[in-house]
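Batch manifest line 354
LIGAND: pyridoxal-5'-phosphate
JOB: complex structure
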Amino acid sequence: MALEDPRFLQYGTPQGDFHLRSWIAERSASMGITARPEDILVTSGSQQAIDLIARTFVGPGDYVLVESPTFITALDILEGRGAKLLSVPLEAEGPRVDQIASLIERYRPRLMYTIPTGHNPTGITMAEERRRQLASLARRHNLLILEDDSCSEFAYDADAPPAVKAFDAGGHVALVVSFSKTVIPGLRVGCVIAHGPLMARLAESKSLGDRFTSPLIQRTLWRYLSAPQYMRDLTGARETYRRRRDALLRTLKEVMPAGVKWTHPAAGFNLWLHLPDGIRAAEAFEEGLKEGVACALGDLFLPHEPPPAGLRISFADNPEEVAAEGVRRLARAIARLLSRVDRGEQEAEFVTTV
Ligand SMILES: Cc1ncc(COP(=O)(O)O)c(C=O)c1O
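JOB STATUS: finished
ARTIFACT:
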């Protein structure tokens, strides 16, 4: 490619390759979004987009709304900016949007970080009506929304609802998209879709940060995305993850002791296991390790409140039979802890002061 066109070896522009941005603009129409190439900034992974938005719009002491639990790296980035995090509880339909208005009135937050589709770590997908409400709250209160989407191409039961950005009439939503799951994480390409002054400031930050993302990598990605093979690969990957999700849900139902509950993800790569009363996530995690199985400890994904008794199980990486064996072992570990709870042995942890 460099021989074909030596410009790929030269400095690029902060917003990125025009062909790639045109492709993204066209594809984003399927998420209900109207975007032109000039509304798109290519970043080095979507993580850089999150970081750029945080460093451009959030300063020390600013309040930021986050779903609880949420993506651990976003928490670290926001805390790194000195933000004060305000938790919005999550339920099956998505974040409690009804609580957001009063939080906004009380704290005047700068930003809300949300993962509406295939939420990490819970697997929850926000209902369309809540997306609409969130966009309208943002407009009414001049709140910036950082919408993180790495999973809407991986919706298993029906198409994912339109993005929050699709309801953004006033330019308050910056939508961050990743190519790590749809293509490969090793390319380090993501993007942010934002309009007007938001985009202008983000492009300036990108230019000051790492100037631009590799033109050679961007054009390579565009060649792949615009070839028919991409859609075939994406459909195949979606099928693989759907099978893995279904198999995981079946095994959980077969082997988990009574009292253990879990989410049923319609998109993404994760589900959240709610542990029964009396069992802490850290204990279940440790007991699982004794069986040779590990999953992510729920406590890690929390802004600041007391840890819920939960674990994240990812179905992205393991073939069905490996995941099934892992879940059987985790079920054994949890059953052992439950029998100790029944016998009252958990009290032993609270040592009497003498
Ligand atoms: C919710 C969420 N956002 C962002 C990212 C970062 O993705 P990228 O590889 O594009 O930086 C991840 C990675 O797993 C993720 O789960």
